[in-house]
Amino acid sequence: MSDIDIQISSKPLNVPICYDYVSDHRAGGNALFVGTVRDQTHGKPVVKLDFEAYKPMAVKEMQKIAETMAERWDALKISIHHRTGTLELGDIAVIIAVCTPHRKASFEACQYAIDTLKETVPIWKKEYFEDGAVWVAAHP
Amino acid sequence: MRVGLGRPIFGQYIRLFMKVKILAFGIAKDIVGGKAGAMEFSENATITQVKEALTEKYPDFDKLAKFSIAVNESYQEDTYVIKEGDELVIIPPVSGG
User: Fold this and answer.
1) What residues in A contact B30, CB-CB < 8 Å?
2) Do A117 and B97 make contact, defined as CB atoms within 8 angstroms?
3) What is the pTM of this model?
4) What is the predicted pLDDT for the residue at B2?
């Protein structure tokens, strides 16, 4: 049985909380991914971001991701936190922390988690520029 | 808005409709002009018909890269038959992380 910690919060995310959660003597490797707000998109300066979540379903989809990490890569402990609301440049949007018995699996599990989160978890990002705002990925 | 043919009862086609709650997030919220609403569908309507009805009423849905409908907090196939009391959610392309 793996330990899984899923959170969606409108308050600033905290890397040490996620990292400490996955510290475990059975593990030989901890992987940590931190997604932050970049200052530009295709060269256009970004002013701020807004994240909106369909929270009950987003939590379920994040839980599914964590369960797959446990099954496929023998992840022992998994922590996935996602922020909602308004974020400024440099703010943390998402944290994924995982520990596995061997290092390779920790990298792979972490990569799987962020890639899948971006595909399936019902959270939407609105980018604000100096001259307007767009919902990211909405249009082809 | 009413969609679908209904079903035959006592040799006649009687339209039986149900009202379904629909939530919208992200750009879908902007397209329908609000976060929550309701639409009427025939008893045996599928997700495909829900999507067609939405696109007919709000042509901007056609401009999206794609959109899905979640039912009761899970993604559902287009063939899913909606039931009275289902909570439908319009899921435009997600962009978390």
Assistant:
1) 135
2) yes
3) 0.91
4) 54
